[in-house]
Structures are given as structure tokens and as C-alpha cells.
Amino acid sequence: MKQNLFHKLIFIFVCLFILVLSVAEADDTGHVYRFYVAICKTGKGDYNLFEPEGMCFSSDGQMLAVTDTHNNRVKVYSVDPNPLASIPLRLEMIYGDLWPWDNRVLPGDSDDKYREDDYLSSRYPDPNYLYGRAYEHGQSRIRPAEKIPMDHFNLPVGIGWLDLTTMLVCDTGNHRIKALKLNGEVKFILGQEGWKDGYFHHPLSVDTDCAGRIYVAEPRGNYLRDFPLDWGQKFRVQGNRIQIFDTDLKPSKRLGHMHHMSGRDYKQFKNLTRVWVDLNGDIYVADNGNHRILVFENNMQKKEEIIKWEGYTMRYPNSFDVAKNGWMAIADTGNHKILILDERRELRQIIGGFGTEFGKFIKPHDVRFGPNGDLYVLDTGNGRIQIFKGMYIPDQFPRCPVPDPEPESIKKKKKKNKPKDSY
Q1: Residue 403, preceding peptide bond in cis (omega within 30° of 0)
Q2: N or C: which end of the chain has fewer CB within 10 A?
Q3: Is 92:80 a contact under the CB 8 Å cutoff?
């Protein structure tokens, strides 16, 4: 009897030992992410988020900017460099607030005074929120750009960094890109509502490459699922595009077209929701309506399509991020999950599922590889940022190579040729 009990204990011990080894091996190879901590909760206070839809680390990884979309503001957090920090993010600044319904623009024009009913977006009964679209193309006219306050937003979605002190914000409801400095100064405004190159219609994502060029993704309008389209509806589902702007802020290239029909061709899209550029200049886009991620070379030729794996198909992926070692994280919004792919695009881990508990998500809209190998997930429906710990993702920052310092001879020559001040 005692001998059988002893054998059973030995067997249990061996099983536990093998289990610990397998978990350790998985951690060492980076195959597993585990929930670590959650920041914020749904609400309108300074330390809350309400349906946030975009986030981005600065190029040195020390700051995280978040678009608190339905609070009409941008929040900037500093990142604690300690890998074991209990609170990795600390709120530093808040830009903007509720607008355009604060009567700051007088006299009130028809676009603010009369709003069309929008029952699809009236999901959150709130006396401070006016339902309906503020001055979209379906109403009486386009609101003049000079009537839009510089220091406020209308449903900002995408966000990126121009440099270490300047954010690029997709002021989506105002159809423009705002370059906002950390001190609150607006460096420049790019675009206004329209269909021509250099104009925007609800820009949803912005990114920059290492040369300083700006990439903007925009949809023409939401296509209608499961409904036959009449001739009037077809105009609403026309094309989506990526616009590329040089450092002088002039449009130079375009991927897609605003006046072509949406579709599944490799240069046709349905609801572009994310654009990202790697160090080689390859352009990654989230083709949300076609449930896929597309990769284009810098000459606009298709390079890769990421769409499904054996036993798993994406559903409305909204965002993604790619690590320096080629690993990829995808916010599979329709399935309420985060996918982790290796450099061969093989599916290594599926994180989450629908729910409110930690490690679960409701409509995750963005995902980023952060400092210390952590994975940051913007859990949009739950109004929070969830952070997961992994064991093997190389340091992401600085994002672009640091330029070599100028030789001393060139510095001395510049100093020598510098004109003297005249009095």
C-alpha cells in the first residue's frame, strides 16, 4: 500500500517537473505571453478611457500616446523602464476635450446646430454627447477649416510620432492630420475634408518612415455587409487609399484610389484601418473589410497577403505591429483576440477572447510591442490598456537607426563658416 502511494507521488512529481520544463522552454523561445497588468477603466475622468482606438510609442520607447477617441482627447503616458514595474505607465499630459458641442464657435453654423439622427452610433446614453455626425459629407456643406478650433479634436483615431516631441494625430471627425507638440503647440495642420490628393475623408491611421515621410490611411465610407447595394449605396463604398507625403508635406505617392470601387484586388480595399512602414520601406496595411493584412514594397507592388491559417480565419483585423525580429502581433478585432505570428507568419499564440476579465478583450483596436519585450493591447470596449509579459522579443527602440555623428572636421568647418550677427 505504502509502496503504491510512493510510486504515485513519484509519478506526480515527474509530471509536474516535465510541465515546469515545458513552460520554461515556451517562455525562453517567446511562444507565450501572459497577462501582467491593466491600466485605466471605462469613463470620462482623467485616468479613464472611453472607446480608445489608437496608440503608439515614441521612437525611443519612452512615451506612449493614446487617442481617447470618444472623450475627444489625446493622452500621453511616460513608460517606466523597470521591467518589473507594478504600474508601467504614468499619465503626463491630456490634450483636447469634448468638442464640437461646447459652443466655442460663434455664430453656430448649421453643421453644429442641426444633426442627423444616427441610431447606429447611439450606443451610450450620455447627456454630454450629441448623437449624429457633426459635419460629415452627407449634411448640408463642408465645414470651413478656419472654423475648427486648433486645440480640440473630433473623434481622433490614429496616432503616430513625427519626432520625439511631436505627435501626428488623425483628427478623424475633422478630416485632418494635426502635428501636436508635447508642449501643446500645433506645429502644422495637414489636409481638410475633400477627395483630391492632399485632402482627407475620415483618416484612420498615420505613420512615418525613417526619412520623415508621412503615410495616411483613409476609407471613403463604411461598406454595408449582407445587404444588396443600389446605385446610391455604391457611391458610399467607393475606394480607400494610402496617401504618402514628402517632408515638405506635399502628396507624392498614392496606393488605392478614392473614386474606384472597393474590392478584393490587391490594389482595392474595404476599410483601411492601419498603415505601418518598416525599416526597409515596405508598407503594411490592415484591409479590415477584406479580413486581411497586405504588405507592399516601396514601389507599391504587392509582396505578401496575411489572411488565415489552418483552423483560424481573421475577422475585421484593425491593427498590427511588427517587431525587429520579424514577429508580428495582430489585433483581430472581430474575434476579440490578439494573434502572435513568428517571422515565417506561422500562428504561435492566440490571446484572449470576448470578456471583461483580465486577459480577455472587447473589440481590441490596437496592439504594440513595447519596451522590455512587453505586449500592449488597447482593449477598446473595456476602456483599458492591458500589458502582457513575454520572454523573447528584442528591444524595439530606437525604432530607426541613430545617425552617425558628424566628424569633428565638418563641425569645425560649419562653425567657421557661420555668419556673424550684424548690429
Answers
A1: no
A2: C
A3: no
> If you average pLDDT over each of 18-22, 394-398, 401-405, which comes out highest?
394-398
Cell numbers describing residue 287: 484591409
Pick the CATH number of 29-99+149-417 from 3.10.20.310, 3.40.50.1110, 2.120.10.30, 3.40.50.300: 2.120.10.30
Question: Does pTM surpass 0.85?
Answer: no
Closest by CA to 46, choosing from 76, 5, 3, is 76
Contact 84, 173 (CB under 8 A): no
What are φ and ψ of residue 156, in 5° steps? -70, 140
d(CA 90, CA 3): 58
Other Cβ atoms less than 10 A from the Cβ of 379: the count is 31
In 246-282, DSSP assigns E strands to 251-256, 272-277
Print burial letters for 333-357: b (CB count within 10 Å at least 16), e (below 16): bebbbbbbbbeeeeebbebbeeeee
pLDDT tens sequence across 33-60: 999 999 999 998 899 999 999 999 999 9
Q: State the pLDDT confidence band at 405, using cuts at 50, 70 and 90.
A: low
Half-sphere exposure of 26 (CA within 13 A, CB side): 13
Cβ atoms within 10 Å of 89's Cβ, excluding its own: 22
d(CA 363, CA 354): 8
